[in-house]
Amino acid sequence: MYEVVSNEIIAPNIHRIEVSAPRIAAARLPGQFVIVRCDEGGERIPLTIADADPAAGTITLMIQAIGEGTAELTRITPPDGIRDVAGPLGMPTEIEKLGKVVCVGGGVGTAVLFPLARALADVGNHVTTIIGGRSEEFVILRDELAEFCDEVIVTTEDGSLGTKGFVTVPLGEIIEDADRRPDAIYAVGPVPMMAAITEQTRPSGIHTIVSLNPIMVDGTGMCGGCRVTVDGEIKFACVDGPEFDGHLVDFNELSVRQQAYCGDRHCRTTNATPQTNSENDA
Q1: Residue 20 is part of which domain span?
Q2: Cβ neighbours of residue 202 under 8 Å, at least 6 residues apart?
Q3: Bigger pLDDT: 153 or 38?
Q4: In the sheet that 126-133 helps form, which strands lie side by side, from edge to edge?
C-alpha cells in the first residue's frame, strides 16, 4: 500500500495528490509515468509523475476526476493509500541545453509540462512557458512555473485570465519574432492542440516535441490503444514514448483512430496527463 500524504483540489475536478513512493521518487526522470490501481482487480490508470521529492520519498500526481477510476483516486484521503503504484515507466525526456525553449501546455497537460520545463531550466535553457485553459479556474501551476521559467504566458478561451484565445496565438508571435524565436518547442495537451502546434512550427523547421500521453490506456503496450504512426513506423506511446518528434507523427491518422472510440455526440478527444477514461479540457 502506498500512503497518500496529501490530496488537494487545485481546479474544478483536478486534484494534486502526493504519494509516498521512495523508490520511484529516487529513480524517476522527467517525462516518465506510473500505473496506479486503487484495489485488487481495479482499473489500471497511467499517470504522469508531475513532480518528485527524493528526500521526502514522495511523488506528485495530477488527476482529473472524469471516469470511475480517476474519481475513486481523488476520493482517497490521508493516511489511506493506493494499493499499487508501478513505475517509473516510459522513456524519459532527453534534456539538454538548447538555448531558447518554449514549453506549451493545455489544460491538465500543464502538469506533464511542469517537470520538463523545470529540467530544461535547470540545465541552463531560457524557458518561456505558455499555458492555457477554458477559463481562469482551469489554469494550473502558473505560480509554480514562474519560480523557474524566464517568462510565463497565460491564455484563456473566455479571456478571464491573460490573453483571450488559444496557446497558438502567443506562440505564433514568438516564432515570428527573430529575437525570441526558440530553438525547440515542447507541447503537451489535447491532441488537436499538439497537431496545430506542429503545423505552426513546420514551415520554420523548429524542433517540436509532443507528448502523446493523452492516447495511453493501460500503459504497457498490450492493449494497442496508444498505437501511433511516427515517421512511417508503428509506435506505442507508452513504451516507445510518450514523447516524439511532432513533425514525424501522423496526426491525421491519430485523429481518425481516436474518433473510432466515440460512442455518441458527447465524445471528446482526451488530453493532458495519461488517464484512462479521462477527458481533460484545455
Answers
A1: 2-89
A2: 247
A3: 153
A4: 163-164, 151-156, 126-133, 100-106, 184-188, 207-211, 243-245
